[in-house]
Amino acid sequence: MAYQFFSSVKAKELQIRRHGLITPYYELSDGKSTFGKLKFGGLFLRQATIETANETWIFKRKNLFSKIITITDKKGLTVGQLVKKWFSQSVLLTMTDGSRSQFSHPSFWKRRYNFTDDQGKIMEFKSRFADRNPIEITLTKNFQPDNQTLLMAFAGAYLILVLRREKAAAAAH
């Protein structure tokens, strides 16, 4: 499928839409255009592939119990990494260009998550339970290249979906 090129100037509200039941994949859209796809794979779903109009990223845990998720491009070059803190739902995104942002869940009672940096909130994620559009994303400012904004949107969606799976697995045991 051909995806549209993303522009944070034109799109402020995005959504993640789920497709399929057995092997689901998730598309990022603004309601009119589709900007890319997130698909889980690998043993124990430790890996995810994101495809956009001009980039492919692979999110992969270092090992089964690792709190570090490396982000590489399709050539295998490291683009960044996500580091989850122990006993916390905070995750630090560090890009190879040195930029850093924090993914967090500010309230236990609400299904809202944020990406923030030193200047404040970058984007907000609203999670819905058992919905075809499980995540809504609001871009609060455009400060970086569109490619990095897309990567952060997919990273946040990835983290929400993984956290949801981890909670379900913990509740089952």
Describe this structure in words.
By secondary structure, this protein is α+β, with helices and mostly antiparallel strands. The chain has one domain (about 15-170). Helices cover about 15% and strands about 45% of the residues. The chain is built from 1 helix and 12 strands; from the N terminus they run E-E-E-E-E-E-E-E-E-E-E-E-H. It has a 12-stranded antiparallel barrel with strand order 1-2-3-4-5-6-7-8-9-10-11-12. The termini are far apart.
Task: Characterize this entry briefly.
The chain is of the alpha+beta class.
Summarize this structure as a short list of keywords or feature phrases:
173 residues, alpha+beta, 12-stranded antiparallel β-barrel, 12 strands, globular
Tell me the layout of helices and strands.
Layout: E1 13-19, E2 25-29, E3 34-41, E4 47-52, E5 56-61, E6 68-73, E7 78-84, E8 91-95, E9 100-104, E10 112-117, E11 120-127, E12 135-139, H1 146-172
Antiparallel strand pairs: 1-2, 1-12, 2-3, 3-4, 4-5, 5-6, 6-7, 7-8, 8-9, 9-10, 10-11, 11-12
Mean pLDDT: 85
The total of helices stands at 1
Order of helices and strands: EEEEEEEEEEEEH
Assign a percent range to the helix content: 10-25%
Query: How large is the share of residues in beta strands?
Result: 35-45%
Radius of gyration: 15 Å
Parts with pLDDT < 50 across at least 5 consecutive residues: none
Shape, per Cα inertia axes: globular
Question: How many domains in all?
Answer: 1
Structure class: alpha+beta
Main beta-sheet strand count, sense and barrel state: 12 strands, antiparallel, barrel
Could you give the count of β-strands? Answer: 12
Oligomer: single chain
Q: Give the end-to-end Cα distance, rounded to a whole number of Å.
A: 39 Å
Strand arrangement within the widest β-sheet reads: 1-2-3-4-5-6-7-8-9-10-11-12
